[in-house]
Amino acid sequence: MTAEATPAAPPSLARFIPLIVMLLTPLFFSSNLIFGRSTIPEVAPFTLAFLRWSAAFLLLSPFLWRARACVRSYVTTYPAHWLLLGFLGMWICGAGVYYALQFTTATNGTLIYTTSPLMIIILERLFFRRPTSWREIAGILVGFLGVAIIVLQGDFAGIAQSSFNWGDLMFIAAALSWAGYSVLLKGHRTAGLPVSALFGIVTLSGALLLAPFALWEFLTGAMMPHTWTAWGGIAGIVVFSSLLAFSGYQYGVARLGASTASVFMYLLPPYGVGLAVLVLGEPFQTHHAIGIFTVLTGLVLATAPRRKR
């Protein structure tokens, strides 16, 4: 290789690295429900979530130490805020999701959970008077129609019969909780914190809030990890579903912008459903196909960035 050819390689590679990262990031996010579904028979849900966020906090602690002045100011000034973030994002969307996976499939959970961007629009409209366009309203309605198709398995007579799956209803609550977490994550209280340090604080909050419930599971004889399969699932959740997923998304936002990075998250439903079918052997039925098309249509309609002239 000549000296003249060497400088040309990095710029050309640099253009594709963010795209490759953002193609993999939704896959990492989707892996949480797959690892969770396969691990929850061997590990109690609060224990699984506690181990996940405790390990993530330990791995992120160097970032907290490096930004310790900002971290100390935020933690002491807004204690209720960071504890609420941990409750919404790590307690409900951690242990709550793993508990729900005992009653429903990873396929249903993935498709329902994907509607959280639609709930973000609703929450911002209700609490922050965010202007809402007709396109967003139409997208919200279409997206929730897709959720209804999935929850009712394509049989709308189930509304009258109240034949709901409790796991699906828990995932609706988890999607709403994640929307609340996402809305609270922005604002003046967290503006001065580096992203990695903020994530470290929230993981600490989640671990602290989950600890009493994990201890209760341990004292009552609930399932604890004792096999290589269980520890392998926990490691997968920590590495892929937590650290790589969150850091990959943050990298994509920094390199491509929030609007472009968010478009890649439309890959969550096909990735999640594909993994559930291929890895877990879950059935893929007609109502899933209709639901995934309807949910994706609503998401694109409501959240896709408008093209500038």
What report would you give on this structure?
This protein has 309 residues and is mainly alpha-helical. The chain has one domain. Helices cover 77% and strands 0% of the residues. Helix 2 packs antiparallel against helix 4, helix 6 crosses helix 9 and helix 11 runs antiparallel to helix 12. The relative contact order is 0.21. The N terminus is likely disordered.
What would a concise description of this structure say?
With 309 residues, the chain is an all-alpha fold.
Q: What value does the average pLDDT take?
A: 83
N-to-C span: 43 Å
How many domains is the backbone divided into?
1
Helix content: over 70%
Uncertain spans: 1-9
Q: What features would you highlight for this structure?
A:
309 residues; mainly alpha; 14 helices; 0% strand; globular
List the topology elements.
Elements: H1 9-39, H2 45-66, H3 68-77, H4 79-100, H5 106-113, H6 116-128, H7 134-151, H8 158-161, H9 166-185, H10 195-219, H11 228-256, H12 258-264, H13 268-279, H14 286-303
Helix pairs in contact: 1-11, 1-13, 2-4, 2-10, 2-11, 4-9, 4-10, 5-9, 5-13, 5-14, 6-9, 7-14, 11-12
